Amino acid sequence: MTTIPSRLAQMTRISSNRSEARFRAIDLYRAWVRAAPEICTIYALNVTPAYLRHSIRQKFEQNRHVTDQRAIEVLLLKGQQEFQETLNCWKQPDHIYGIMLQNNQRPQRTFLQKFYEGRDEDAILPAASGVV
Q1: 3-state class percentages of the chain: helix first, strand second, coil last, to nearest 5
Q2: How far is residue 111's CA from residue 126's CA, in Å, rounded to a whole number?
Q3: Of 12, 48, 80, 101, which has the fewest Cβ atoms less than 10 A away?
Q4: Rounded to whole angstroms, how far apart are CA atoms 8 and 104?
C-alpha cells in the first residue's frame, strides 16, 4: 500500500462537551481496531491482529478514568497523531513493539520493597491523568 500522508489528516477540533469527546474516542478506537490487520502487515509484526487489538484495548482502558475535558482532548489528539504516523509508516517496527505491545504494568511490590528503593511511585500522579 502506498503512503499518502493526507489520507488520514484531520483538522484539529475541540469537543464541545463530554458526550462528543466520548464519540470521538469511540471513533478513534474503532479506527485503531479496524487497522490492526493492516498494521501487522505493514510492519511485518510477529503477532496476530487479535493480540494487537487486545493491546490497543488495554491502552484505551488505561485512560478510561480521565474526566478532565482538556486532558481528554490532549489524549484524543495524541491518539489520532499516533494513528496517522503508524499507518503512514513513519515509525519503525521497534516503535510499534515498544509503544503498542509493551506491557507497562509492573508487578505489585510490598511496602518494604518500595522502602528499599527509596521512593513510592504509586503516590505520584502523571500530569495528564485528569485526577485533581
Answers
A1: 60, 0, 40
A2: 21
A3: 12
A4: 28
Contact between residue 24 and residue 40 where contact means Cβ atoms under 8 Å apart: no
The one-letter amino acid at 13: R
pTM, two decimals, is 0.73
CB 84 within 8 A of CB 9: yes
Q: Burial of 37 by CB count in 10 Å (0-12 exposed, 13-18 middle, 19+ buried)?
A: middle
Beta-carbon contacts of 86 under 8 Å, excluding residues fewer than 6 positions away, are 35, 39, 96
- 100-131 pLDDT, tens digit per residue, is 777 666 677 787 877 777 765 656 655 555 55
